[in-house]
Design a protein that fits this description.
The complex is a heterodimer. By secondary structure, chain A is an alpha/beta fold. Chain A is built from 14 helices and 11 strands. Chain B has 2 domains: 278 residues, Spore Coat Polysaccharide Biosynthesis Protein SpsA, Chain A (Alpha-Beta Complex); 145 residues, Hexapeptide repeat proteins (UDP N-Acetylglucosamine Acyltransferase, domain 1), CATH 2.160.10. In chain B, strand 9 and strand 10 form a beta hairpin. In chain B, helix 4 crosses helix 7.
Chain lengths: 352, 515
């Protein structure tokens, strides 16, 4: 289903993945945790391979695996498992200091007696664990469903009155973020039209419909107007472990222009875009080259023969060009993304 | 992901109505790919290392088709086996593929349509394509448009998908095309006139009534005919009624539009975005390969959704190298742009590969030059060979320092000796094994037909020995059609017209004189 790109958009793909995994877990027969993990991995690998450039699929699988393991640990080891999150970086940033983690145990029900590999009743393990697992996957789903709200809940702290914001492309997250800020502040958005997909047109239409004063400018004028811009807000397709990101083509242009003017660059993205890959940007194909038809019409018979047109869908924006990532898990500088990834996923799942 | 298609939700609505059926005419009913198609149906020829049939399935799956009937005639067993072994026959594929073997007497698409009628498999509007289609057009949108039109006008019979391409487009066939006369408002096709490249068609006739009835007409000679037709249920029955309809365009469309009694309408769908083309001849084989490599077919590209299930890494300059680290590239070899290299292939020192497709498990010797060459699986090319604008089949052995100039077709399993210099547009196939007696008895028609072809070739082998070199098992096919007049070929299959459809044919001489 992913393979022929019927599911469009990172979040939709992630949601779809979580739903499939929920289905798989509810149907799966297993008598110990390894079997279950193997089943999820196998399905996850197939899903991720069907659409290798949609990283959110693999990320969701990793997240589900992480949650499943966590539930399993807390169910078997009780209190020892729950205290794993003590040094969470997001807590650190939010609260200023590491604190004893107390909330984790609140939702764990009365401890279930788990018996793995019970020969007399092989399904007993599955039966006992499944409700907890379903809840774990539901958590992932809930998180995905509320991701836009959570990213944009602090929008008013980032955008101030009378500021001029530049954005590019049509990221749903950025759209929600700007609209949420629009409830509190009076500010101006400049939208680059984002050739060749011209997603900026739609973004501008949507923002101005929400009552935000919006300008649509061609991509070529990004540098020229950058001196007047207070902040650049970008969406992301995937955030890599080094703090760099893949974003719609044109983002690199905007980010570099912003660097030249020392304008802060803010990236809004849900946590499911965190991708535990370090060196993806070395790969030429990672930019997801689309068909050339939006750049050069197929009817230009003579040119089609003689010109090679490349139409990369994404730009790689390096970590040095980004100032902060705003996620549903708090705000982070690029340098701590690796830490966030370590907390979100288990190390053994990086290769599905 | 790139929001190429946002019609996911609308599609669900269409799904509720009925299953979208497609019919693939997997037989080409002509011999343009001979001798590559000796012992193999054309739809199983690989293009960019996946069979044409797989590309067609992938294209249809992309368009939301759920049930496919594959009409096969020659080598039906091979086609059936290929379908059985493909990923599409797995229950998870969501596609139902039914191979249908037609009678040996099926000699044209028209015969195949009559066969479909007698099978009675078609229950609703269906999509008719050929087994050599590469497309990413949202056919379901065409189907929806067609159904809407039918609701308003029950006489809407068919919608043809065409693409604007300009007269000189590489993907547009110069040997055979058509002039479409359209009503720009309704995109109704008012008249269709077939055009062939040789002898050049200088004028077409448009019935006067058309100009009377329609204040505005568009006469288009720049369409690439994708041969994707959305047909109504009654189309097969019309073929049944008119037993002399052979070709879908030249006979059926022309016949329906010029008929005074039928009062049926045919429409065109000018695909604005999306790509669709068929591999109708070796020339379009070349151009469709190039279109795939330069990603016009996105999302059907080698590094993503490769129909053969291979994984390729996409490198700068549209180079695709198999991903499993099994390709051995010498340090000094040069890989140019628009190149695809299959897994387990070795390319040795100082070899140059430019705008070429190389299959799996090939060995390209030192100093070889490949330019616009298509090399199928398991082929070995000796040191210092030069291959240009040619197709080299599977399991071919080329000795050292062979020269294969443009337009050559070398069939599967051919061995060519050292230092051979082929002439331009040479066609080479393997000699027949001495026929065993028991085989001769139960040889079926198909083999017989093939044999008669080969016998003819064998009769013209003077001078072949010197050209092919020692240790060769090859047969040279005649350069020009020897008996054009004897065999009653229709004009478009004549040698001089076919010449325009050959790989490497020079575009400058569209008018006709020999290279």
């Amino acid at each position: 289903m992913y393979s022929i790109r019927q599911v469009v958009g990172s979040r939709e793909a992630a949601l779809e993945t979580a739903l499939v995994l929920r289905q798989v877990v509810s149907k799966a027969r297993f008598s110990n945790i390894q079997q279950l993990i193997a089943v999820i991995r196998e399905v996850g690998r197939r899903l991720a391979e069907a659409q290798p450039k949609e990283h959110s699929v693999g990320n969701t699988v990793r997240r589900v695996l992480h949650n499943v393991r966590e539930e399993y640990n807390s169910a078997t080891k009780g209190a020892t498992g729950a205290s794993r999150n003590v040094y969470s970086i997001s807590k650190f940033v939010l609260q200023g200091q590491p604190r004893k983690h107390t909330g984790g145990a609140a939702k764990s029900e009365a401890r279930i007696t788990l018996k793995e590999n019970d020969p007399s009743d092989p399904d007993s393990f599955a039966r006992a664990l499944k409700p907890v697992l379903m809840e774990a996957i539901q958590d992932v789903l809930d998180e995905l469903e509320t991701v836009y709200d959570n990213v944009s809940k602090n929008a008013k702290d980032h955008i101030h009155s009378d500021e001029i914001i530049l954005t590019i492309g049509h990221s749903k997250t950025v759209e929600a973020f700007l609209k949420s800020a629009g409830h509190y502040r009076n500010y101006t958005v400049i939208v680059a039209e984002t050739a060749p997909s011209y997603q900026g047109h739609e973004m501008a239409r949507s923002l101005s419909a929400a009552g935000i004063s919006t300008f649509l400018v061609p991509d070529s004028s990004i540098y020229a107007i950058m001196s007047r811009v207070n902040k650049v807000i970008l969406g992301a397709h995937a955030i890599l472990a080094n703090g760099g990101l893949f974003a719609i083509s044109g983002s690199l242009l905007a980010a570099t222009a912003a660097r030249a003017h020392s304008t802060p660059v803010v990236v809004c993205a849900g946590q499911f875009k965190l991708t535990p890959l370090w060196n993806l940007y070395h790969e030429h194909g990672a930019l997801d080259f689309a068909d050339p038809s939006s750049v050069l019409g197929f009817d230009e018979g003579k040119l089609v023969e003689r010109v090679d047109v490349v139409n990369p869908y994404y730009d790689y924006v390096g970590p040095e060009l980004v100032d902060v990532f705003i996620t549903n898990d708090g705000d982070h500088p690029p340098s701590s993304v690796y830490r966030l990834i370590k907390e979100t996923y288990d190390d053994d799942d990086h290769e599905l | 992901m790139p929001p190429k298609s946002s019609s996911g939700k609308d599609k669900d609505i269409a799904d509720e109505d009925e299953v979208l059926q497609a019919v693939i005419l997997a037989d080409s009913f002509n011999k343009r790919f001979k001798p590559l198609t000796v012992g193999k149906p054309r739809c199983l020829l690989p293009i960019c290392n996946a069979t044409l049939l797989d590309w067609t399935f992938e294209s249809l799956a992309l368009a939301g088709v759920q049930e496919i009937f594959v009409i096969c005639r020659s080598y039906a067993d091979q086609v059936k086996a290929a379908i059985r072994d493909s990923k599409w026959s797995k229950p998870s594929s969501g596609l139902k593929i039914v191979p249908i073997v037609t009678a040996k007497e099926t000699f044209s698409p028209g015969d195949a349509m009559r066969d479909i009628y007698t099978h009675g498999i078609i229950t609703s509007d269906f999509v008719l394509v050929t087994g050599d289609l590469v497309s990413n057009v949202r056919i379901d949108e065409v189907v929806r448009a067609h159904k809407e039109r039918r609701r308003a006008n029950p006489n809407a019979l068919m919608t043809m998908v065409v693409k604007e391409g300009g007269t000189k487009h590489r993907t547009r066939s110069r040997g055979e095309s058509g002039v479409f006369v359209l009503d720009p408002d309704t995109s109704e096709c008012l008249h269709y006139e077939p055009v062939i490249g040789y002898p050049p068609t200088p004028l077409i006739k448009i019935p006067r009534e058309i100009l009377d009835e329609h204040p505005e007409v568009e006469i288009r000679n720049d369409f690439i005919d994708c041969s994707i037709d959305v047909c109504s249920v009654e189309v097969p029955s019309l073929f049944q009624d008119n037993f002399d309809y052979a070709d879908i365009r030249r006979d059926f469309v022309y016949g329906v539009l010029t008929s005074d009694l039928l009062m049926k309408n045919i429409y065109c769908y000018v695909a604005k975005d999306g790509y669709a083309a068929r591999v109708a001849d070796t020339r379009s084989y070349d151009s469709v390969s190039k279109d795939i490599l330069s990603r016009w077919t996105f999302p059907l590209v080698p590094d993503d959704n490769h129909p053969g299930g291979h994984a390729y890494e996409h490198l700068r300059g549209n180079k695709y190298i198999a991903k499993d680290n099994s390709v051995v590239l010498s340090r000094t070899c040069k890989i140019g742009n628009n190149t695809l290299i299959g897994s387990h292939t070795t390319i040795e020192a100082n070899a140059t590969v430019h705008a070429s497709v190389i299959g799996q498990r090939c060995k390209i010797g030192p100093g070889v030059v490949l330019r616009n060459a298509y090399v199928f699986d398991d082929t070995q090319i000796g040191a210092g060979c030069v291959i240009e604008n040619s197709i080299v089949g599977a399991r071919v052995r080329l000795g050292d320092r062979c020269h294969v100039p443009r337009g050559c077709l070398i069939a599967d399993g051919v061995v060519i000796g050292e230092g051979t210099k082929l002439r331009k547009f040479e066609r080479v196939s393997r000699k027949r094994e001495a026929a065993k007696p028991e085989q001769a008895n139960d040889a079926n028609d198909e083999e017989a037909e093939e044999d008669s072809d080969l016998e003819e070739v064998e009769a013209h082998q003077e001078g072949a020995e010197e050209i092919l070199g020692e240790g060769s098992n090859a047969l040279l096919w005649p350069q020009s059609a020897i008996d054009d007049e004897e065999e009653e070929l229709d004009e478009r299959e004549s040698f001089r017209n076919q010449r325009l459809m050959r790989l490497g044919a020079c575009p400058r001489f569209a008018g006709g004189t020999i290279y």
